[in-house]
């Protein structure tokens, strides 16, 4: 089991659900994830040679959050470092966050 970071532990103890959190919960339910992943997967790099690729589902979620919230590539990278909710929605931990070039290339 992965150890919680201080940020994750603090976030787990909060009480109020924000509009952004409600929005992401709703999007998690209504977006046809498996259909989109199946459509993109034949074109997504396998990560052979070089750094391992991020999971397709993670990159798709980050890309959609960028569009929903109007983040540029550098701003999305920063938001993933700063905001626990966004990292959780994308399925990321603080140990490995996609940089702005990775986001641009996706």
Provide structural commentary:
It holds the Pfam family DUF772. This is Transposase domain. With 106 residues, this protein is an all-alpha fold. The chain has a domain at 35-43 and 53-105. Helices cover 60% and strands 0% of the residues. The chain has seven helices and no strands. It has helices at residues 6-12, 19-30, 33-40, 56-69, 73-82, 84-90, 100-105.
Number of helices: 7
Mean pLDDT: 89
What is the succession of H and E elements? HHHHHHH
Helix content: 55-70%
Q: Beta-strand percentage?
A: under 5%
The SS-based structural class is mainly alpha
Number of strands: 0
- Evaluate the radius of gyration: 14 Å
N- and C-termini, Cα separation: 30 Å
Key traits:
single chain, 106 residues, mainly alpha, 7 helices, 60% helix, 0% strand, globular, Transposase domain, Transposase_InsH_N
């Amino acid at each position: 089991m992965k150890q919680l970071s201080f940020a994750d532990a603090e976030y787990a103890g909060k009480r109020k659900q924000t509009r952004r959190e409600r929005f992401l919960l709703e999007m998690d339910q209504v977006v046809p994830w498996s259909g989109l992943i199946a459509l993109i997967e034949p074109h997504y790099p396998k990560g052979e040679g070089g750094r391992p690729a991020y999971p397709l589902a993670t990159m798709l979620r980050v890309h959609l959050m960028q569009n929903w919230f109007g983040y540029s590539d550098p701003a999305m990278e920063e938001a993933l470092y700063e905001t626990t909710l966004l990292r959780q929605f994308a399925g990321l931990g603080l140990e490995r966050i996609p940089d702005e070039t990775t986001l641009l290339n996706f």
